[in-house]
Amino acid sequence: MQTQTQQANAKAYGEVLESGAVRFERLLPGPIERVWAYLVEDGKRASWFCGGKTEARAGGQIELFFKHSRITDETPPESHRQMNDEGSLMTGTVTVYEPPHRLAFTWAGMGDPDSDVEIELTPMGQQVRLVLIHRRLATKSRTAMVSSGWHLHLGLLEDQLLGQKPRPFWSAHEPLMAEYAQRQRDAAL
């Protein structure tokens, strides 16, 4: 049975801040140091998002190695099969490294221009508020794709922190991406 926090997090859509920027907020089980470890440690981050090393300093490199077969046993759509099965490496530069509160980095390899990700953690009693902002997304379609991705990946992070079976990824990705695209169209009206 889902807690109220899990139910709220599952329904919490990313909010478009401005053209090419989306913001997510989640309440996660703490402590903050544990959530931080899932952001920066290769093996832990690979269990919900992507693997790769993070140099623990501003100006360091961050590797984003996506191999979704590590996070789901669902069959991927053909368009994502190579990334799912073989993996895909993207990189970035750490711009803020303030453990265990703030991590920010550029993200290269998603198209032109590079985008920026900022994650802030704040203790809230036994829980941790995570705020993630992804900026400089070049197109509306990229914003919808990234929004659905973060939505799903943050759900998987919550599952990892709760020690429960990961929720579906691929079967939810396309419908959620279409929903984010529609939300953008509705907001433009």
Put the structure in a nutshell.
Residues 31-158 form the Activator of Hsp90 ATPase homologue 1/2-like C-terminal domain. The protein is α+β, with helices and mostly antiparallel strands. The chain contains 6 helices and 7 strands.
Task: Give an account of the 3D structure.
- This protein is of the alpha+beta class and 189 residues long.
- It has a domain at 23-139: START domain (Alpha-D-Glucose-1,6-Bisphosphate, Chain A, domain 4), CATH 3.30.530.20.
- Helix content is 37%, strand content 29%.
- The protein contains six helices and seven strands, in the order αββααβαββββαα.
- The chain has helices at residues 4-11, 32-40, 42-46, 81-85, 140-162, 170-188; strands spanning 15-18, 21-29, 61-66, 88-98, 102-107, 115-124, 127-135.
- Strand 6 and strand 7 (127-135) form a beta hairpin.
- Helix 5 (140-162) crosses helix 6.
- The radius of gyration is 16 Å and the shape is globular.
- The model has no long low-confidence stretch (mean pLDDT 91).
- Belongs to the AHA1 family.
- This is SRPBCC family protein.
- Residues 31-158 form the Activator of Hsp90 ATPase homologue 1/2-like C-terminal domain.
